[in-house]
């Protein structure tokens, strides 16, 4: 007859369970409370966002730059309009001007980059070859950019456009167009 071993853990009192759970979640709770306290002044840039060269980044007081957003203005201004929202983990690199209009929603994990590495100089490592800039990125008013999108340099996204999640924008988008996929297929027009 097989012998079964029975393992028993030491009994944990209900008080100990509560204590363990509070210890586990205390960092999250304290972090949220401190974010609320720090944001009570209605600073549009949340404390965990990383904005380099703040004098080169103009953010409207009613905009929201949320947690862990990275904004780097290298040579030109980055402007973010009224009531626009940049959601967590979005990265904005400005080699050329970037203008984000009013009431724009940019989903989490997006990349907006106005510049590329000059990969045609084969005599130098790409890291030291400089940048190629095709032009500014302009995102007009009332645009919704879904999660995980990429917007490349020299692009204008027209007023009222919707960019589906995961779309790579390499050319201009017409006003009120709904764009999806890597091929930038127009799904429909909002009007």
What does this molecule look like?
This protein is α/β, with parallel strands linked by helices. The chain has one domain (50-189): Hexapeptide repeat proteins (UDP N-Acetylglucosamine Acyltransferase, domain 1), CATH 2.160.10.10. Helices cover 13% and strands 29% of the residues. It contains 1 helix and 20 strands. The strands form 4 sheets. It has a 7-stranded mixed β-sheet with strand order 3-6-9-14-17-19-20, with no helix packed on it. A 6-stranded parallel β-sheet has the order 1-4-7-10-15-18, with no helix packed on it. A 5-stranded parallel β-sheet has the order 2-5-8-13-16, with no helix packed on it. Strand 19 (177-180) and strand 20 form a beta hairpin. The N and C termini lie far apart (77 Å). The mean pLDDT is 84. GO terms for molecular function: O-acyltransferase activity.
Individual helix count: 1
Report the biggest beta sheet as strand number plus sense, adding barrel if it closes: 7 strands, mixed
| E-strand count | 20
Corresponding CATH superfamily = Hexapeptide repeat proteins
Concise structural overview:
The protein is α/β, with parallel strands linked by helices. Helices cover 13% and strands 29% of the residues.
């Amino acid at each position: 007859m097989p012998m079964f071993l029975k393992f028993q853990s030491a009994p944990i009192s209900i008080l100990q369970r509560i204590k363990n759970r509070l210890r586990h979640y205390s960092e999250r709770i304290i972090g949220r409370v401190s974010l609320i306290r720090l944001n009570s002044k209605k600073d549009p840039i949340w404390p965990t966002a990383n904005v380099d060269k703040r004098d080169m980044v103009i953010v409207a007081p009613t905009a929201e730059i949320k947690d862990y957003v990275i904004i780097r203005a290298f040579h030109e201004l980055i402007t973010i309009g009224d009531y626009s929202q940049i959601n967590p983990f979005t990265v904005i690199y400005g080699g050329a001007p970037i203008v984000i209009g009013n009431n724009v929603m940019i989903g989490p994990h997006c990349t907006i980059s106005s510049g590329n590495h000059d990969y045609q100089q084969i005599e130098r490592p790409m890291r030291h070859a400089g940048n190629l800039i095709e032009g500014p990125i302009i995102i007009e008013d009332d645009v919704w950019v879904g999660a995980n999108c990429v917007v490349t340099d020299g692009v204008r996204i027209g007023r009222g456009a919707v960019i589906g999640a995961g779309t790579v924008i390499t050319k201009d988008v017409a006003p009120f167009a709904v764009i999806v996929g890597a091929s930038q297929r127009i799904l429909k027009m909002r009007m």
